[in-house]
Amino acid sequence: METNRTPMLELRDIYKSFGDVEVLKGISAKIDKSELLTFVGPSGCGKTTLLRIVGGFTTATSGQVILDGEDIGKLPPNMRNTKMVFQSYALFPHMNVRKNIGFGLKLKKWPKDKIDTRVEELLALVHMEGLGDRTIDRISGGQQQRVALARALALEPKVLLLDEPLSNLDANLRVVMRDEIRNIQERIGVTTIFVTHDQYEAMSISDRLLVLNDGVIQQIGSPIDIYERPANEFIAGFVGYVNFLEGTVDAVDEGTNTSYITTEYGKLELDHDQKEIKTGDRVLLVIRPETVSLSPSHGTERPNTFHGTVESQMYAGNLAKYTVKFGDQEMVVDHYNPMGSEKFSKNTKVKVTVPHAIHVLKRQEVQGSAVQN
Ligand code: ATP
Predict the structure, then answer these.
(1) Between 172 and 50, the higher pLDDT residue
(2) Ligand 1 centre and the CA of 50: distance in Å?
(3) Can you tell me the mean pLDDT for 324-343?
(4) Is 23 a pocket residue for ligand 1 (Cβ < 6 Å)?
(5) Residue 226: CB within 6 Å of ligand 1?
(6) The pTM is what?
(7) Ligand 1, atom 3: nearest CA belongs to which residue?
(8) Are the C-beta atoms of residues 98 and 105 closer than 8 Å to each other?
(9) HEC string of 306-357?
């Protein structure tokens, strides 16, 4: 949602080309104080380039970077009040942890006793007390990540920039460090931009996500916006699986807040929460597998139900996953916590019931217009 607050950082219409190749195509975004915003998108979409433009390691072809009201677009990295943690950490291997963390403070000619106090504070912040005298080659990958973070935070930057900070860690440590980074970020309230290509990581750590594809913002929004109110087909398919079903809006009843939709396979009655959807619109229904229920084909008729046949089923204890076919349409159904409830084997005739609250995309949005929240 757009706010009236003064943003800590504002990107205004940023374009970037390398030679003939335009990799960023008009990026505009505002980042609030203390917010953690993640740039996420497929490999090569331009997220690192955008981060480097904020940090001053790459210059935009056009556009502005405004930090706390000041245009910093022409300043070198060390003159901006931003700090970047690189994917490689870029620590000094022969120095000990304490010297690495205090390096920037020494460059700024802080007195030794002040440096010592600040370094101790930072060691405590990143849970590295007692390890200050170790050299970098004698600490683990996760600990190196903590040192890089502490070093970046030493001078209290206005914006912390994290470029795929977890990519060198194994899967379990990734989750631990992700939670720890979020915890530290929230505790000290530093405005942060996090870059990752991992949608789940982005969803788990962010206040908001800025989703890029091919140098264009597809949507800026909270994890809930991205999952439950995707702006277009790209975003709908970006996190988790989605079933798409085409339809036409036959009528909208504002009184009961209901829209009546016809699909090739039957009629649906949906909650009408998206006021931009009007009678006559061609729409694409965004149906998440976990919101669909299955029942035996006999039994009472329920609204919003299609009749189909189980094409495949998989049971994984906490989840039973089905693919049901009706006509040319396949519908994936995830039934969580299936213990004790009815199971359906292959070729069984079933009823597939979709909920009343389904997000719909107007057909022209399907082509991928950018929407910002
Ligand atoms: P990844 O997740 O793979 O790191 P990314 O989204 O961070 O991808 P960028 O590193 O920003 O993508 O690169 C965007 C595009 O710009 C890519 O096609 C890349 O090859 C190109 N690119 C990046 N840096 C340069 C450069 N210095 N010279 C030429 N092309 C570049």
Answers:
(1) 50
(2) 10
(3) 93
(4) yes
(5) no
(6) 0.90
(7) 43
(8) no
(9) EEEEEEEEEECCCEEEEEEEECCEEEEEEEECCCCCCCCCCCCEEEEECCCC
